[in-house]
Write a structure and sequence with these properties.
Bound molecules: flavin-adenine dinucleotide
Largest sheet: 5 strands, parallel
Number of strands: 18
Helix content: 25-40%
CATH class of the largest domain: Alpha Beta
Length: 460
Amino acid sequence: MPTIREPSREIPVIAEADVVVCGGGPGGFPAAIAAARHGSRTVLIERHGYLGGLATAGLVAPILAHTASESHTPIVEGLLKEITTRLHALGGAPAWEDALQEWGIRFDAEALKHTLDEMCAEAGVQVMFHTQIAAVATEGDAIQAVIIETKSGRQAVAGKVFIDATGDADIAHRAGAPTTHGRAFDGRGESMGSFFHLGGLPELAEERAREITELIEHEMEDGRFAFYNPHFLGKNTEHQDHTSANMTRFSGDSDNAADMTRGEAYVRKNVWELVRYLRANVPEFADVYVQQTSPQIGPRESRQIVGPYALSGDDVHLGLKFEDGIARGSWWIDIHCPLGNTYPVHLCTVECPQGADCPYWAAENERMRSKAELYPPKGDWYDIPYRALLSIKTPNLLASGRCISATHEGMAGARVMGTCIAIGQAAGTAAALAIQAGVLVGELDVQALRETLRADGQLV
Ligand SMILES: Cc1cc2nc3c(=O)[nH]c(=O)nc-3n(C[C@H](O)[C@H](O)[C@H](O)COP(=O)(O)OP(=O)(O)OC[C@H]3O[C@@H](n4cnc5c(N)ncnc54)[C@H](O)[C@@H]3O)c2cc1C
């Protein structure tokens, strides 16, 4: 590939913060709010024009893992409960007590955008939208500043502690900290996917809705559609005048722009194939339309930092607790086929119908889990240890959300939004406490962190 030399230049440092949170998704926004509430000058940098990450840009819903495994007992409260309560006041989520009775917290993405704007403003977070973090400046192993690219040009934001909540561990990677990528076998992460909303829906009796879903499933068996499930009538959001479907699948790397480009067009094509089919073949759906596809395709797993501890599949399945537990998770080892195979393939387990046709299954089947070994014990949860947020190399870096240190199996449980929000609250609080104490994040008194999180309403 030909190359050109980019000339070096002086760039302005437009902010000097205590805590710089990189990425405004479920791992990032709680980190910024928590750090600012604990007195840190906090900057939150986000490439989109709103906060929420995949909760808004991916239309992903509902927020999972707010309760213990297969139970209604809360395991995450703190900022998640506060956000849900504020969303409820806007008509954008059920009341907290009602949400505990459901498998996830349904919410309206537009209400979430507004709620997060308000909460960041109230906490004094300096939010920078439309700001892409392009590079990292280091001094020895430590991060000195992140280099941003915006319509205003190339600039820098300096800080004391940096929180990598980019989902893809962009900051760790660019700072030269070790990272992993997907499963050890071939580096592939779980497949990506995209939510879409359909409007123009008729009122359907339950039996007719089932019939039509079965029709789509039948067409999937015949190879007409590349979906992994037929549930296009799903309604996971607070508003019931449109569907919210999670059926698409694309195998690629979210840290590769060419893959992301292909993925966007591919999932849109799949959605329109379904809509054309429904209009032509199901009389009740003659007027169905695509209300929206998610603004970006959703990555489930890509780069993650290497920390002193990596959350594992056994930790998830056995519901392990740690002395340095700073968040709780209950989602299970939910691995969407990394090769992007669709119906009848869903999860990467030893029962996968691909069997030996899949190179991973052929090589690893003796070590693969069965479906019965994916879940934490009923009514239980696992802890996320603080060590999984630390980098083994970069002393002023914390990871949050889906780029913490975890194995492929561990991340398949920890990546859901309820857990990411709990991790984010812990990361932001830890950054602020470390700065107050004048210590590195790796030297923080973790029991003091846990006490602070409890005082802030978190369950640890
Ligand atoms: C198809 C699909 C279905 C899912 N279903 C569910 C579900 O039903 N329930 C659930 O709870 N979870 C679900 N998840 C998982 C969940 O959405 C994610 O794991 C979660 O959003 C991760 O949060 P995060 O903050 O770590 O990353 P993200 O949500 O990806 O947020 C990262 C943020 O960082 C920003 N960013 C990234 N790089 C840069 C950069 N270089 N400069 C500036 N900004 C940057 C991004 O714009 C984004 O806002 C699903 C995921 C997918 C893909």
